[in-house]
């Protein structure tokens, strides 16, 4: 079906554009097949695709029946989705038979059946896949299905809403010739673009069934009929009814072979919600930051400050130190309430920064607003990376993938809006609603970590109400250590006595008042994903560390303390060690991560000089004067290529890992030399610079995701210091970007001033 529709859309679009029946820029799909001869191809292909779609929907329906016997409610959803899928396929036939130029009302009804029922069908099967195990339906496929379903739904609403505001069709020759002077042109392009995105999402959604359908076979059984009486063929309502009626000896004349379920593992629930949440938060967290960087040249030119392009990315990171330091002040508070407050604060930074930038009357105030936008990106990055330590370390890939995709989405958004003639002000204001997605991902999609004390108690068979169970920063001796310490303290007095549990509990209660009680969080909603979505207390999957847990009791260490430094007092309580000074803790953690932090710092210096400064100087004077879209928008296009590379490499952690991150640093340094030399002598054509910029992004994104994965999984880093170490590495990013932007300003006003 995907091949048939893709061929249909491509052929009809090419013919319609060649005949000047439609505009070349995102016409409506149905407009491309409204006039002959392409209308004949359009109708034929849609009918064939509808027939294939009915078969696919029925096969999927039968597969779900075979795997849904142990899942309440799935059979009902499955039947409803079958009904909706058939309606959508019938609507596709209506769209092909009734062109919009002939019977517009019927055509729109058919389109509503296709897109509306199709969106609901996709969402229902995402829910079904999550609630049960289906052969071939791995976690990645379910995540892709969820993303495609969300894209289809958002695009459907967007296409319908902007179609309402586009107004009447332009008059004149052709069915849909729109240009920038036509009233409602912007709404028209947004609506048509959304329709193409929706159609692509549907095609890719059905392609994800490939893994499920691959092991299926079609068996045709031929039975000879003897005697005058022919057996009556009855449609089989279910597989079980069919077998019961036939005595288990015969199958229907044509029946889909059932997949072998003998070795099928029990269904498992995967943390798809957490993966999606961190991806969305990473994307929105960096979206405003990326759009500002993509618009750097335009912002500087709008205030006649073309030699201060480097000031824009510099301002985007100038307050990164303040932002990361502000997050450092919250690090002692590990409750979900604390992280929720920081997320709200970050959302406020986003709103204030974008609105102030949209209405900035001068370049100085624009830079101040950009500082706030960049501050939100740095602050949000530190918050979420610190929050990730309570989850499985692999989820850092979803966050980094989201930040990488923000580069593509942000750059494409700016290029598209620039092409549509929208101003920078309009672009920044349109970006504001995306902040709601950021908040929704944290508060409604993400499964929060369970109470740390409760998590530890489950692993150590200690009741949460046990008075010896303390906050995560406290320490509770194991049974053997308590006994040893008690014996030692009593023998020193010359008298052996049994330790009093009442006194020890009282003493612990008094000492507990000195500790943070932020770990007393509300238990998370498991939502059916209790096994896989249950977050880890820091250190539960990190291997050896300074924090240890006995087989019977939970043990946590105060920052800077070691297990040997905590002794029992004569009353059977705990003698807490003196707290480590903040400077000593920072210095100790700095020594643990200085090397990887330096690699990330240097990579960011090199790539920001390339993408932010060198990319703006690659064109000759003759190239700049060309009336060509590629040359006129070369800076933004090179920025898009850079973001494509970043997205690919930041999403690659589960495929390839680079423990030797210093190799990436050396390669990025060589890239910088090549780009600066080209700015001076201009010997590399623009078409060759595009893949070179993708390579720059690949190295930068790979360094980012691998460095943070190393920090999250390093067994030599105590778990109570892990969030601080993450923030110190993040400081390296801010320092690197700041140095890179400073070098851009120096280069632009020295040997590259006339380049």
TrEMBL record:
For the keyword Isomerase, the answer is no
List, alphabetically, the GO terms of the cellular component aspect: endomembrane system; membrane; vacuole
Membrane-traversing stretches: 40-59, 79-98, 104-128, 140-165, 185-206, 275-296, 308-327, 339-360, 366-390, 402-422, 428-447, 592-610, 630-649, 661-677, 689-712, 724-747
Keywords (alphabetical) are:
Membrane, Transmembrane, Transmembrane helix
What InterPro entries does UniProt report for this protein, alphabetically?
Battenin_disease_Cln3, CWH43_N, MFS_trans_sf
**Claim: Repressor is one of the keywords in the record:** no
Composition-biased stretches (Basic and acidic residues): 507-523
**Which residue windows does the record flag with biased composition (Low complexity)?**
478-493, 545-554
User: What is the organism of origin for this protein?
Assistant: Capsaspora owczarzaki (strain ATCC 30864)
| Family that this chain belongs to | Belongs to the battenin family.
Name the record gives this protein: CWH43-like N-terminal domain-containing protein
Instruction: Provide the CWH43-like N-terminal domain boundaries.
Output: 4-215
Source domain of life is: Eukaryota
| Compositionally biased intervals (Acidic residues) | 524-534
* Biased composition annotated in UniProt, kind: Basic residues: 495-506
Positions of the UniProt region annotated as Disordered: 232-269, 456-554
Pfam families recorded for this chain?
A: CLN3 (PF02487), Frag1 (PF10277)
Primary site of residence: membrane
């Amino acid at each position: 079906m995907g091949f048939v529709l893709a061929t249909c859309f491509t052929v009809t679009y090419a013919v319609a554009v060649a005949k000047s029946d439609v505009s070349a820029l995102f016409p409506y799909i149905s407009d491309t097949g409204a006039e002959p001869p392409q209308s004949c191809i359009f109708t034929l292909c849609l009918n064939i695709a509808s027939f294939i779609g009915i078969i696919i929907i029925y096969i999927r329906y039968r597969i779900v029946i075979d795997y849904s016997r142990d899942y309440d409610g799935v059979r009902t959803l499955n039947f409803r989705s079958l009904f909706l899928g058939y309606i959508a396929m019938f609507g596709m036939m209506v769209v092909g038979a009734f062109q919009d130029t002939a019977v517009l009302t019927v055509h729109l009804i058919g389109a509503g059946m296709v897109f509306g029922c199709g969106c609901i069908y996709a969402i229902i099967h995402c829910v079904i896949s999550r609630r049960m195990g289906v052969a071939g339906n791995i976690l990645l496929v379910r995540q892709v299905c969820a993303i495609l379903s969300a894209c289809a739904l958002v695009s459907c609403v967007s296409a319908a809403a902007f179609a309402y505001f586009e107004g009447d069709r332009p008059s004149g020759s052709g069915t849909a010739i729109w240009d920038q002077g036509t009233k409602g042109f912007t709404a028209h392009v947004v609506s048509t673009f959304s329709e193409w995105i929706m159609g692509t999402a549907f095609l890719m959604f059905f392609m994800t069934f490939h893994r499920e359908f691959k092991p299926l076979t079609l068996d045709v059984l031929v039975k000879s009929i003897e005697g005058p009486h022919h057996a009556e063929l009855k449609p089989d309502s279910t597989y079980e009814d069919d077998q019961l009626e036939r005595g288990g000896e015969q199958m229907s004349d044509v029946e889909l072979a059932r997949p072998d379920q003998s070795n099928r593992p029990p269904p498992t629930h995967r943390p798809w919600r957490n993966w999606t949440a961190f991806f969305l938060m990473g994307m929105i967290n960096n979206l405003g930051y990326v759009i500002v960087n993509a618009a750097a040249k335009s912002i500087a030119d709008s205030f006649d400050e073309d030699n201060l392009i480097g000031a824009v990315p510099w301002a985007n990171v100038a307050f990164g130190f303040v932002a990361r330091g502000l997050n450092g002040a919250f690090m002692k508070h590990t409750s979900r309430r604390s992280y929720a407050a920081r997320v709200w604060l970050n959302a406020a930074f986003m709103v204030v920064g974008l609105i102030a930038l949209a209405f900035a009357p001068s370049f100085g105030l624009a830079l101040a607003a950009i500082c706030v936008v960049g501050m939100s990106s740095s602050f949000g990055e530190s918050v979420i990376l610190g929050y990730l330590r309570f989850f499985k370390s692999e989820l850092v890939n979803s966050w980094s993938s989201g930040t990488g995709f923000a580069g593509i989405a942000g750059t494409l958004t700016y290029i598209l809006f620039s092409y549509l003639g929208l101003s920078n002000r309009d672009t920044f204001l349109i970006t504001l609603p995306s902040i709601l997605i950021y908040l929704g991902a944290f508060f409604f999609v993400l499964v929060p970590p369970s109470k740390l004390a409760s998590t530890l108690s489950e692993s150590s068979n200690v009741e949460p109400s046990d008075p010896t169970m303390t906050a995560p920063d406290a320490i509770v001796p194991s049974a053997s250590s308590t006994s040893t310490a008690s014996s030692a303290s009593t023998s020193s007095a010359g008298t052996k006595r049994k330790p009093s549990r009442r006194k020890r509990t009282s003493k612990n209660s008094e000492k507990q008042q000195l500790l943070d009680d932020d770990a007393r969080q509300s238990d998370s909603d498991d939502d059916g994903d209790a096994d896989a979505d249950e977050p880890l207390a820091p250190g539960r999957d990190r291997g050896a560390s300074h924090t240890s847990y006995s087989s019977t009791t939970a043990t946590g260490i105060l920052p800077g303390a070691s297990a040997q430094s905590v002794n029992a007092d004569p009353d059977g309580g705990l003698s807490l060690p003196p707290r480590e000074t903040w400077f000593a803790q920072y210095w100790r953690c700095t020594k643990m991560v200085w090397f990887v932090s330096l690699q990330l710092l240097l990579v960011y210096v090199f790539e920001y000089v390339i993408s932010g400064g060198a990319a703006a100087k690659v064109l000759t004077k003759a190239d700049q004067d060309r009336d060509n879209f590629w040359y006129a928008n070369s800076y933004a296009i090179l920025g898009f290529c850079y973001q494509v590379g970043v997205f690919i490499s930041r999403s690659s952690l589960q495929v390839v890992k680079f423990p030797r991150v210093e190799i990436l640093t050396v390669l990025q340094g060589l890239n910088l030399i090549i780009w600066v030399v080209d700015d001076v002598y201009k010997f590399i054509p623009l078409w060759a610079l595009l893949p070179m910029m993708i390579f720059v992004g690949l190295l930068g994104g790979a360094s980012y995701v691998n460095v943070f994965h190393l920090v999250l999984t390093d067994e030599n880093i105590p778990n109570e210091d892990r969030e601080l170490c993450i923030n110190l590495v993040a400081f390296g990013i801010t320092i690197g970007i700041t140095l890179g932007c400073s070098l851009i300003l120096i280069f632009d006003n020295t040997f590259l001033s006339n380049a």
